[in-house]
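User:
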Amino acid sequence: MARETMTSTERTWAATRLEKTDRVPIVPFLSPEPAAHLAGMTMAQVSNDAKMAQAAFFKVFDDCGGWDCAYGGPITPVQSQAANIYPMKMRIPGKDLPDDYMFQLLEEEVMKPEDYEKLCEMGADAFYYKDYLWRIASFRPDELQTHLWETLTNWGTYTEELKKRRIEPFLAAHEFHPFFRLSLMRSMIPFTKDIYYNPAPVERAMKKMTAELIPKQIGVCKAFGMKSWLFVDERASGLNYPLSVFERFWWPYTQEIIGAFWSEGITTIFHLDTCWNKNLPYLRKLPKGSAVVGLDSTTNIFLAKEILRDHLCIYGDVPASLLSLGKPEEVAAYCRKLIDEVGKGGGFILGTGCATPPNCKPENFRAMIETAKSYELSGR
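Assistant: Predicted structure:
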């Protein structure tokens, strides 16, 4: 077998720049819940203790011989709510659910129609922390600063452990698209009625959220010395809405946001769940190399390669169903197909479709990692 000629960091960021690499980089999204399963811990342990979540991540990482970049940090569901990541009520294993259940987010109409104007008047962050959070919070107001401080402290120990293993985090800043965030806060059906029957308040809120998001998250990237950030949407695709909605409520804000980050030399890592086949041609209009398009296996990744070839890096998409129900040889065969077809010519990062599933078979996870690390170097 030929030897690797690039470090993990060199390999990953070369792929985002559409440059040729010694082999395709492998970056699985390993959140605390699947890490717990693969490490022999319970969901309750990692959902209530970020140190246990960190221990689970590094046990899996070390047992598998490592991979190229870390995606999935040590943060509990409550800390995510405190950090303005999940704007929804939640049920937590060990408290509201049995120990081996995945934590759950509840789809409820928490934000009311009149809140659009309140958000615009107060500002998005102020509205969240002074009002909205206390409609959904799983903790008391006097515990907020503790949760935020612990989140920051855990990030420091996490990155120190990554340095020992000579890899970097894939991202530090993390934000939902304003369209997606409002859909979660209003819930999907009321939000859909808003955009059809009362769109003006929605658009004012989205403009306000976009204006706040850009300087805030660029500031986070600079504070942590990061050149990439995560931008998430799971609802605006052609699966759920016609292109007329996409063109009015999603695409202009996306262009503004990605352009602002790219002007600072920061690459956007899209996390796009559901089927975006109809929307892929729009992404070709973004600046070359400005984004990594992460897909969850419901979008046709081979079509994405055809449309975005030599323009944007593609990331994904070993299906959760294959990792949970398939056999190691089936996982390896799909990874080789991705490397051969999507990886051809560069601009590809092999990863999980969305996240590693919480019931992933250990032998399948290992097959994905080992195939990525050995296939091209073996000379095929």
